[in-house]
Amino acid sequence: MSSLLPLKPAAESIHDREIDPLLVALDDPAADDILSALSSSTARAILTTIYEEPRPASELASALDTTLQTVSYHLERLEDADLVEEVTTWLSAQGREMAVYGPTNTAVVLFAGAEKTEPRLSSGLRTLVGGLAGTVVASLAVQAVWMTRQPPVQRFVARAEPEPTTPTTFLSAYLDGPGLVVLAVGAALVLAVTLAMAWTQRRV
Fold this sequence. Notes:
Layout: E1 22-25, H1 29-37, H2 41-52, E2 55-56, H3 57-64, H4 68-80, E3 84-91, E4 97-103, E5 108-111, H5 117-148, H6 167-176, H7 178-203
Parallel strand pairs: 1-5
Antiparallel strand pairs: 2-4, 3-4
């Protein structure tokens, strides 16, 4: 008769868990712990194996053809470096709980000299998008003011009334009026400023 106990409940993979990649600069103090924990080929093999599928220490020892003591030693160091963690527990055939280990992050990336890349790109995009949005608003405002100051065009019918402004008529007037000129000039200025900022930051 099979046991009613769930000896091996499914362990969530990195795709099912709410975890993020780990980005660590080489001059970050955490990089020392990570490099130290991964200095052994056995530790790297353990980490690679549990990225494929979370496993307890005993299965890791069997998969890597090494001793349980060796695996336990490296798992402790990997835990201290915040690279692995206990994701669930299994019950052995003897009824003992076994910790099942999985990666703490979806990926581990050590980098050097790229810490300013993202802020510079984000700053440039914010400048470009914000400038273009302001230019569009300004051009629409200029067009609206210009149209209100124009004499209304009336049709001579029984009761002469000015034609109402519709989105279609406004767009037509916008394309032929000062609004489009303001948009074009403003967009050119914003693009020039953004390129100048990017060139300056690249030389720093």
